[in-house]
Here is the input.
Amino acid sequence: PPHWHSRAAAALSEGFTFLANLTAVDEVGHSDHIRVLLWLENPDDGVTLRLAALADRDDPHLPDLADILP
Here is the structure.
């Protein structure tokens, strides 16, 4: 997760400014992680970008994106 915030910031600067979806999937039975998925869309051409990060189930934290997402 150390690149979660910087990857999202880079995507926003590249025009992926529409937050299409933010969700999480508990990988119970498969791993000890929670998979966090972020879909951003470029409103100019409709191209979508998916970012994913794994958060440890015992300490499920990722850097906050509230400072870069409106």
Observations:
- The beta strands are 18-26, 33-41, 48-56.
- The mean pLDDT is 94.
- Helices lie at 4-13.
